[in-house]
Structure formats: structure tokens, C-alpha cells
Predict the 3D structure of the following.
Amino acid sequence: METQFTKEQKYVLVKKRVEKISKFYKHLAIYIIVNTFLTSIFIVGDMNDGDTFKDSFYNIGNYIIWIFWGIGIVFRAINVFGLGLLFNNNWEQRKIKEYMNQQDIRK
């Protein structure tokens, strides 16, 4: 049995999907910023303990958080869209229109 949605219901569903994608990109940005900051702190800390920059930079222990948090990011990306495009200022509105058009095509 196929469910018939009104235009308003379709809009709400699509808007929720676009918000989910937007939240993913925000999470990705936080991932990059926080991990860059933490890795810098770890490298400087290693250098203060007597390691050279090269030894500190290539120490895999300084990048473990990238790996584990990155696994979470990958699963979230798969959950949201399976890998998507970057967005700009009008990205959410374009995505809403795109998904609305897809809903109309499927009927």
C-alpha cells in the first residue's frame, strides 16, 4: 500500500532530511577543528618531553583520536547519504527543492 503525502507533509519530510545532512556537515567541521587542535597539543607536548618534531609528527599515538572518531564519522555519513556534496549559503533550500522534485517524480 502506497502512502499519499500532501505537499506540506512532503516538505516537512524533506526539511528533516536536509537538516540531518546539515548536522552531519557541522559534525564533520567540529571533527576536523577539534582533532587538529588536539593533535597540535600532543605534538607540542611530545616535543616538550624531548622528542624531535619529526618523531612527534610521525607518532601514531597522536592520531588515534582521528581514527576512532573518523570511524564514527564514516558510519554517520553512510547513515545520512552515503557521501554527499559540499554546501554553500543556499544549499539547504536547493536540497529541499531537489528532494521535493524527487518526491513528485516517484508518483
Observations:
- The chain has four helices and no strands.
- The chain has one domain: 7-105.
- The mean pLDDT is 84.
- Residues 7-105 form one domain.
